[in-house]
Sequence to fold (277 residues):
Amino acid sequence: MTALPDDVPDTLRWRLEDIDLQAVDREAVAPRDDIFLLVCSASFIESGTDLYTRNLLEYFAGDPEFESWLRDRWEPEELQHGRALRAYVQTVWPEFDWEAAFADFFAEYSALCTLDELEPSRGRELVARCIVEMGTTTYYQALNAICDEPVLRDLSWRIRTDEVQHYKHFYHRFLSYRRSEGLGRSQVIAALWRRVAELRRSDADVALRHASAWRWRDSAETPALADVRQRLFDRMRTEYPIELAVRMIIKPLQLGPRLQRWAERPLSALARRVLLN
Fold:
């Protein structure tokens, strides 16, 4: 097994040492391009968390409690996700040059991940963070459902559990800024809408493009990115936890328990029609 660096805090809920990489069933998963692309692209994004953390620390300067959580909890856990996913890729696909592919990804990603991309106020940025954590939570839950390799199922569920906790922390911090900034529901809806509209763009698209390019780097026939993206979408949407996604999306609207339950059903039905038809 691969050990973690010495500077990883002891407060993590799990450690890479807990993932039994020696037990990976390589024969079962190695031929699956869909699993490779989903795991590899996720490993790129998670491994770039330190850049995003620097942006958030600068943006939330003067909020020591939140700065401490970002630096001491969120960043170490996200970077651990990247290390664990990278280790899985290198265990199953040792011929893949992860370092070179990540370097290409990061060169492009770092130009996109800037302070200018954040929302115009702290409260609205925390709404956006809730949507990002919703996206990662549901991503890893869907990945867990479509894979049948036991070690990856264990790993993806551990990461999914971390992402749920991150969502909860961003959400509770949002409540504080919502009061102090006097954010109305229309402003929250606007922030939600902007971030939901971006979920299938930007960093995820960049990561997938570089994972795909390096996967078929020496192949005579490289599949078109649009075809790769559509195949992955078709594969994931059958197991996508729609009800959970809707519940997490609308929670920042503070509708109240009864109204939230009333809103979840039609929104989930609409989302299911969009995804499955």
Notes: Residues 150-181 form the longest helix (32 residues). The radius of gyration is 19 Å. The chain has twelve helices and no strands.
